[in-house]
Amino acid sequence: MKVMSIFGTRPEAIKMAPLVKALEEDTEIQSVVCVTAQHREMLDMVLELFHIQPDYDLNIMSHGQSIIDIISKSFYGLDDVMKKEKPDLVLVHGDTTTTCAGAQTAFLNKIPVGHVEAGLRSYNIYSPFPEEMNRKITGTIASMHFAPTQGNKNNLLKEGIKEDSIFITGNTVIDALHEVTNNEYVFKEDLLNTIDYNNKKVILLTCHRRENWGQPMENIFNGVKEIVKENEAVELIFPMHMNPKIRALANEILGKEERIHLIEPLDYEPFANLINKCHLIMTDSGGIQEEAPSLGKPVVVLRTETERPEAVEAGTVKVIGVEKSDVIQGVNQLLNNENEYLKMKHAINPYGDGTASKQIVKIIKAKMQSN
């Protein structure tokens, strides 16, 4: 059977890489990989790390591209590829614009869709934007739903998805994470090798979500600045997103602080190993909420809601919002209360044991062969 995997961004590539490898290793499956390159450089870093050579590269990225640009270029390019390859199944991941375009294009070509990381919901169509609507649309089209958790499965059942099409597999990101982390890892960036991770409480910050642009991000950065000033044992590392507005604001508010290190974005391998070395994580990202707990790192979420409520319920993640006072209070509680910190550190990650990709391949074969 011919299975086509479609992805276009760095997060998708990270989470699809172990699945692509598992598909390639199976002699009963012909694996075809198509990337849109919605993100170009960041995508290429992951492809190189996992030694993936796409069969098709649409190379759609352009400077200042809009969501409309991405989705229209993806539709045209993916339609050509699908008409040529005629796959038996199209696999898409998560909630990007590439994901939504891939699912819709497959539907218009009457090709079944498998949705990896299915069933995440925030129940607010504008947060995260446009991801929440992308995954809802994809979920409506898909005939196989690979849900990381029971909670994700429950979300799909509430939307009328048939139970026999939903499979709980854990999240493929845990597969990828275990493959690249190493306690003896040495960074190419000298600064990251000089930080005292053992005796300092090193915080890793990521912040880039569209809904946090403007005042929320200003609140977050001012809160971060205050946290570092109040806690002499704290150092903070912020790999800055490439968006010029985010970088300008970060340099303005955080740039002159001695124990705050503004660095360039990291490839996945050094980034995963930086998570492994840090004390705790502050983030508005989705994937880190799954990754960091598998390495025993508490996560505070810089958003007002999360589509990963099972992480909150498990105690691995705490949503603290975007107000300056809430950011300071939420982080200080973990810095100054060892019991609270250890409780989160030792909570069991609900996103699986690193075997999701093998499970998905097995399910695909069984399901396709029975049809």
From TrEMBL:
Q: Which domain of life is it from?
A: Bacteria
| Pfam families hit by this protein | Epimerase_2
Which Gene3D superfamilies is this protein grouped with?
A: Glycogen Phosphorylase B
What EC number(s) is this enzyme filed under? 5.1.3.14
For this protein, the record's NCBIfam families field holds:
wecB
Q: What is this protein called?
A: UDP-N-acetylglucosamine 2-epimerase (non-hydrolyzing)
Q: Which SUPFAM superfamilies match?
A: UDP-Glycosyltransferase/glycogen phosphorylase (SSF53756)
UDP-N-acetylglucosamine 2-epimerase domain residues: 21-365
Q: Which GO terms describe its molecular function?
A: UDP-N-acetylglucosamine 2-epimerase activity
Q: Which UniProt keywords apply?
A: Isomerase
Query: Which parts form a coiled-coil structure per UniProt?
Result: none
